[in-house]
C-alpha cells in the first residue's frame, strides 16, 4: 500500500495508526507493507513519518527534497512498492480504511488491472465536502466519463488498487493530480479491465495543532482559486486526450448549422432581389443587390462554412493521430511487458 503525504503533520500519526490497525486484520489474507512518500513537506511530516516507521517494520518512508506534486509522488511510490497489488490511499482518510479490503476483494474476484473506489456510481456517496468543490468534482467526472465513452463513473479519484505488473509497465508522465485520469486513459488504450466499487467520500477537516500548521492552512486557502483553475485545465486537457475528435466535431457541427441558417437567408435575399428585376436581367445583379442589402449574411455564412470545414478536418486528423498513438503505445507497452518478464 502507498500513501503520498504533503504537510500532513497534524493527522499523520493518528491516521497511520488507523491504517495499520486495519491492515493487521487482513494479515490472514495478505502480506502487506506501507510506503509513505513525503513529498517535500514544509512541516514535520517527514520527521513524524520516520518516527512512526521506527516502531513498525512494515512501514517505509521515502522523501522528496522538494514538493514535486501528486503525480511524481505516486510514481515514486509505485517504484518503491513491492508485491502483486498496489493500493493507493489518501492519508486524510476521506475514504475509510475498510475500502482497502473491498478493493482487494474485487481485484481478486475479477482479476482486473485496477479497481477504483467511486463515490459517483450507484451505491456511492459524498459527505461534508464544500459545495463548490463537490460541484466541480461531479461535473469534472461527468465530463471525463463522457469523453471516455461513459465506461466509468469516477476518473479523478486516487483511492484505487492496481495490479503491480500493469502499473509498472505504464510510462506515466503527469506530475500533478492529472496522473489519475492519465492512468485510466492508458489503461483504456491497452483495453485493460477496469472495475469500480461504491466509494464513500467523507471529508474530515483536520484541526491545526501548531501555529505552523495553521499558517500552512491559511496559505492553502489563499491559493485555492489558483488550484481550481489549474485543476480545471487538467480536467479539460485529460478530456481532450480521451476523445479529441469531440472537441472539433461538436464545434464544427455548430458552425455548419449556423452556416446553413445564414446561407438560407443569403439564398432568400438573392431570390427576392431577382424577382424584383426586369425580365431577362443578369442574375449576378440580384446577387449584388442582395449583398448590398444584407452583407452580414454573406460574411457570416461564408466564415462559418470555412470554420466548419476546418474544424471537421481537424477532427478527422485528431482521430487518425489518436489511432496511431494508441497503436504505438500498445506496441511499446507490450514490449515493456516482455522485457520485464
Describe this structure as you would to a colleague:
- The protein has 341 residues and is an alpha/beta fold.
- It folds into 2 domains: 2-242, Spore Coat Polysaccharide Biosynthesis Protein SpsA, Chain A; 245-340.
- It contains 12 helices and 9 strands.
- The strands form 3 sheets. Strands 4-7-5-8 form a 4-stranded mixed sheet. A 3-stranded parallel sheet has the order 1-2-3, with helices on both faces.
- Helix 5 (131-147) packs parallel to helix 9 (224-242) and helix 10 (244-275) crosses helix 11.
- The longest helix is centred in the C-terminal third of the chain and has 46 residues, at 295-340.
Number of strands: 9
Q: How many domains make up the 3D coordinates?
A: 2
| Integer average pLDDT | 87
Per CATH, the superfamily of the largest domain is Spore Coat Polysaccharide Biosynthesis Protein SpsA, Chain A
Characterize the main sheet.
4 strands, mixed
CATH architecture grouping of the largest domain = Alpha-Beta Complex
Indicate the proportion of strand residues. Answer: 5-15%
The best one-word shape is: elongated
Question: Rg from C-alpha positions?
Answer: 27 Å
Sequence stretches where pLDDT stays below 50 over 5 or more residues: 207-226
Number of helices: 12
CATH hierarchy, class of the largest domain: Alpha Beta
Strand order of the largest sheet: 4-7-5-8
Q: Kindly name the structural category.
A: alpha/beta
Distance between the termini: 23 Å
Can I get a quick summary?
The chain is an alpha/beta fold and 341 residues long. Helix content is 59%, strand content 12%. It starts with a strand and ends with a helix.
Amino acid at each position: 500500500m502507498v500513501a503520498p503525504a504533503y504537510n500532513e503533520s497534524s493527522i499523520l500519526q493518528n491516521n497511520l495508526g488507523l491504517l495499520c490497525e486495519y491492515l493487521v486484520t487482513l494479515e490472514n489474507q495478505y502480506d502487506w507493507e506501507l510506503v509513505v512518500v513525503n513529498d517535500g513537506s514544509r512541516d514535520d511530516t517527514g520527521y513524524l513519518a520516520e518516527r512512526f516507521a521506527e516502531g513498525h517494520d512494515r512501514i517505509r518512508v521515502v522523501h522528496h527534497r522538494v514538493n514535486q506534486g501528486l503525480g511524481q509522488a505516486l510514481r515514486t511510490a509505485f517504484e518503491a512498492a513491492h508485491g502483486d497489488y498496489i493500493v493507493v490511499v489518501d492519508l486524510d482518510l476521506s475514504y475509510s480504511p475498510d475500502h482497502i479490503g473491498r478493493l482487494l476483494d474485487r481485484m481478486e474476484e475479477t482479476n482486473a488491472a485496477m479497481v477504483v473506489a467511486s463515490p459517483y456510481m450507484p451505491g456511492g456517496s459524498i459527505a461534508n465536502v464544500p459545495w463548490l468543490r463537490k460541484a466541480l468534482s461531479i461535473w469534472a467526472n461527468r465530463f471525463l466519463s463522457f469523453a471516455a465513452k461513459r465506461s466509468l463513473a469516477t476518473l479523478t479519484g486516487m483511492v484505487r488498487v492496481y495490479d503491480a505488473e500493469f502499473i509498472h509497465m505504464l510510462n506515466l508522465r503527469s506530475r500533478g493530480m492529472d496522473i489519475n485520469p492519465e492512468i485510466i486513459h492508458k489503461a483504456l488504450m491497452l483495453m485493460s479491465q477496469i472495475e469500480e466499487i461504491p466509494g464513500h467520500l467523507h471529508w474530515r477537516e483536520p484541526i491545526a495543532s501548531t501555529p505552523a500548521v495553521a499558517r500552512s492552512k491559511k496559505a492553502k486557502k489563499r491559493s485555492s482559486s489558483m488550484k481550481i483553475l489549474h485543476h480545471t485545465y487538467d480536467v479539460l486537457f485529460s478530456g481532450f486526450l480521451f476523445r479529441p475528435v469531440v472537441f472539433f466535431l461538436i464545434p464544427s457541427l455548430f458552425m455548419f448549422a449556423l452556416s446553413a441558417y445564414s446561407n438560407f437567408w443569403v439564398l432568400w435575399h438573392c431570390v427576392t432581389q431577382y424577382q424584383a428585376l426586369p425580365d431577362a436581367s443578369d442574375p449576378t445583379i440580384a446577387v449584388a443587390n442582395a449583398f448590398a442589402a444584407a452583407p452580414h449574411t454573406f460574411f457570416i455564412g461564408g466564415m462559418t462554412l470555412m470554420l466548419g470545414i476546418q474544424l471537421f478536418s481537424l477532427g478527422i486528423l485528431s482521430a487518425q493521430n489518436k489511432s496511431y498513438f494508441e497503436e504505438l503505445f500498445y506496441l511499446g507497452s507490450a514490449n515493456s511487458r516482455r522485457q520485464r518478464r
